Amino acid sequence: MSTHKYRIGQSLKFSARRMGSTEGAQYCKVVRLLPLEGSEPQYRIKCTNENVERVVKEYALSHQE
């Protein structure tokens, strides 16, 4: 069974990875750990340049460099 790799409050990079997206990586913080979707952990995140939170799967997140 998979577990969450990141923790609440952790600062990360979010990459949208949508086809045709020109959006680069954004910096975000983990707000909440969510249940698995299939075998993939999910997170609620808040990006620094947005006023909304979004739900993303773990593959879209990485450590800040």
Characterise the protein shown here.
By secondary structure, the chain is mainly β. Helices cover 0% and strands 49% of the residues. Strand 3 and strand 4 form a beta hairpin. The mean pLDDT is 87.
Radius of gyration: 11 Å
Q: Spell the H/E element sequence.
A: EEEEE
Into which percentage range does the β-strand content fall? Answer: over 45%
Mean pLDDT over the full residue set: 87
User: Which consecutive residue ranges, at least 5 long each, have pLDDT under 50?
Assistant: none
Short description:
0% of the residues lie in helices and 49% in strands. With 65 residues, it is mainly beta.
Name the descriptors.
65 residues; mainly beta; 5 strands; 49% strand; globular
How would you summarize the topology of this molecule?
Elements: E1 11-14, E2 26-37, E3 40-47, E4 53-57, E5 61-63
Antiparallel strand pairs: 1-2, 1-5, 2-3, 3-4
